[in-house]
Design brief:
Layout: H1 25-37, H2 44-64, H3 91-97, E1 124-125, H4 127-135, E2 164-169, H5 173-178, E3 184-186, H6 199-213, H7 225-228, E4 233-238, H8 243-255, E5 259-262, H9 265-271
Helix pairs in contact: 1-2, 6-8
């Protein structure tokens, strides 16, 4: 390992090059950033190679006054520089090497600490899929055919038809009292704007949902593991339009539960003719 820090003496590299240019670390990061913004996702070593090429041209012009000796028969100067790295492992270093003037101001910075949990299309159910799982006939099976994976890793393909389904209804208390699905419990978030399109709503509702049904709620008498968790128990989240149900599903999955959201909510449920929820919603 220490030999990597020693001078390279076993290879006559100076004899293998025509010229050598020096590029500072901040310069390498600057040109890497410029390349990224022009469609090449490459790292600082690539930026160093590009700037080294430019510096070679500048020095050649200063020394000879021309680049004509580099031109081909068409009058062009063919250039190649090596892009040998990517930018992703250096993300924090860009901010260390370059000052704020190189970066656009961060918008919606309030979102940095909210909604960090996973989503998966395999955890989303259409109202018709949810209807079939809730009201469809239960097969006669001895025992439960449960996937060996952890509950929060299972998807629709792993769904056991004999699971006990608990519906976490996110509508208001009045709408829940007016009509709700079997085996439902009410977490009255109510109507909100789409949190995925309105950052202030995401901040407010994520904090509300995460504190009420997230990891800290395992022992909560209303939404704790005694109610939502347990062997062969699955949670369906339901709201007005599906957006809040999707957020709640993500929070429950992070808690380790097998949860699915009903996309489109009661609005699509009614539109698909699966049953009325009443005029209140």
């Amino acid at each position: 390992m220490y030999s990597l820090l020693e001078p390279v003496t076993w290879f006559p590299w100076r004899e293998a090059i025509d010229a050598m240019e020096e590029v500072t670390s901040p310069e390498a990061f600057e040109y890497s950033l410029d390349l990224c913004r022009n469609g090449l996702l490459v790292g600082p070593s690539s930026g160093m190679a590009l700037l080294g090429l430019y510096k070679y041209f500048d020095r050649t012009i200063k020394e000879t006054g021309t680049l004509d000796h580099l031109r081909n028969e068409d009058g062009e100067i063919p250039c190649v520089f090596i892009c040998c790295d990517g930018p992703f492992q250096y993300i924090h270093e860009y901010y260390e090497k370059l000052d704020e003037s190189y970066f656009l101001p961060v918008r919606n910075s309030e979102l940095r600490d909210v909604d960090p949990y996973a989503y998966n299309l395999d955890w989303e159910l259409s109202p018709s899929e949810a209807f079939q799982k809730i009201f469809g006939p239960k097969p006669l099976i001895n025992g439960f055919a449960i996937s060996p994976r952890a509950p929060n890793d299972r998807g629709k393909a792993d769904f056991c038809p004999l699971s006990t389904i608990v519906v976490l209804d996110l509508r208001s208390e009045d709408d829940f009292a007016h009509m709700h699905l079997p085996n439902s419990i009410n977490f009255p978030v109510g109507r909100t704007r789409n949190p995925y399109q309105h950052p202030p709503t995401m901040v407010e509702t994520f904090k509300l949902v995460d504190s009420a049904i997230g990891l800290e709620a395992k022992n909560d008498p209303k939404y704790g593991d005694d109610v939502l968790a347990g062997e062969h128990k699955v949670v369906f989240t339901l709201g007005y339009d599906g957006h809040m149900a999707r957020l709640a599903m993500s929070v429950l999955r992070n808690r380790g539960l097998e949860a699915y959201c009903i996309m489109g909510g009661v609005e699509v449920w009614e539109k698909d003719g699966l049953g009325p929820f009443g005029a209140r919603n």
